[in-house]
């Protein structure tokens, strides 16, 4: 096709990967074929104009042939941050990573949710906050901490609608991270629905989400225990590159995702006089 043969054009593997990640966004191959054909036509034109020899198309040359990338991958997190957790989402064109941010400020107990979220995702945020309130003592927080704080949860890429329950554990992790001032590991991604009691329920799209984590150079994925059976859908060579941590409860998620363990609050000491009296008995 396009009047070319193997002696006239060679497209490197890295160049193909760049076309896939930055110029196409689909479940099939139609757009990929179109973009490769566009590259071939432009190389064929050079040949017709008298250029001789093999044309090697590298990643640097892709923008020359196809223009500015249409899709820019999410930037990798450079360091562990407080209030930022990495989630995994399913879309019709494959898995995506989702950075969920949470922050607190002085206020009156309001919860603000932004990022073009659907009703189910908003409900997940409320469930995450209720779980944090129920675990206040264990997390080292005052039981009425929420009364003097306003909490804001944001999911970037606000122009894109987002919904579904699978971001529950990610929202809870980001929220608890900011409340306890504990960084979340940047090398861990997670997905799972959360209940008011902190149970982690199964989700869909495990294969696509695992591939999204690998593309983002994240090798550890937290999954609901009831999704263990879905790992078989992931190709064996991909499985070897990933570490799966299966959890039943939100407490298990925090043990893995937070950089340091959240310690339970120690019981306050009794007044000195009462301690002396008790010792004398």
Provide key terms for this protein.
single chain, 281 residues, alpha/beta, Helicase, Ruva Protein, domain 3, Ribosomal Protein S5, domain 2, seven-stranded mixed β-sheet, two-stranded parallel sheet, 21% strand
Explain how this protein is built.
With 281 residues, the chain is α/β, with parallel strands linked by helices. The chain folds into 2 domains: 58 residues, Orthogonal Bundle (Helicase, Ruva Protein, domain 3); 177 residues, 2-Layer Sandwich (Ribosomal Protein S5, domain 2), CATH 3.30.230.10. 35% of the residues lie in helices and 21% in strands. The protein is built from 9 helices and 13 strands. The strands form 4 sheets. Strands 6-7-5-4-9-12-13 form a 7-stranded mixed β-sheet. A hairpin with a 2-residue loop joins strand 4 and strand 5. Helix 1 crosses helix 2 and helix 1 crosses helix 3. The relative contact order is 0.13.
């Amino acid at each position: 096709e396009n009047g070319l043969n193997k002696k006239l054009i060679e497209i490197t593997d890295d160049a193909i990967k760049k076309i896939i990640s930055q110029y196409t966004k689909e479940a099939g191959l139609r757009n990929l074929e179109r973009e490769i054909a566009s590259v071939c036509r432009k190389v064929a034109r050079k040949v017709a104009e008298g250029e001789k020899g093999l044309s090697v198309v590298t990643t640097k040359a892709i923008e020359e042939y196809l223009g500015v990338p249409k899709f820019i991958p999410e930037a990798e997190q450079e360091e562990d941050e407080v209030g930022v957790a990495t989630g995994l989402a399913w879309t019709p064109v494959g898995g995506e990573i989702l950075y969920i941010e949470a922050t607190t400020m002085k206020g009156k107990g309001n919860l603000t949710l932004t990022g073009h979220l659907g009703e189910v995702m908003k409900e997940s945020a409320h469930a995450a906050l209720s779980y944090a309130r129920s675990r206040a003592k264990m997390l080292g927080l005052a039981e009425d901490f929420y009364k003097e704080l306003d909490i804001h949860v944001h999911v970037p890429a606000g122009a894109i609608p987002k919904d579904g329950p699978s971001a529950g554990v990610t929202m809870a992790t980001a929220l608890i991270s900011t409340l306890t001032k504990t960084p979340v590991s940047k090398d861990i991604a997670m997905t799972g629905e959360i209940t008011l009691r902190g149970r982690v329920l199964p989700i869909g799209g495990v294969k696509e989400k695992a591939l999204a984590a690998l593309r983002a150079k994240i090798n550890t994925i937290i999954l609901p225990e009831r999704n263990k059976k879905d790992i078989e859908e992931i190709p064996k060579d991909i499985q070897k590159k990933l570490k799966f941590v299966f959890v039943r409860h939100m407490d298990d998620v925090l043990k893995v995702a937070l950089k340091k363990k959240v310690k339970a609050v120690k019981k306050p000491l009794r007044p000195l006089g009462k301690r002396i009296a008790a010792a004398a008995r």
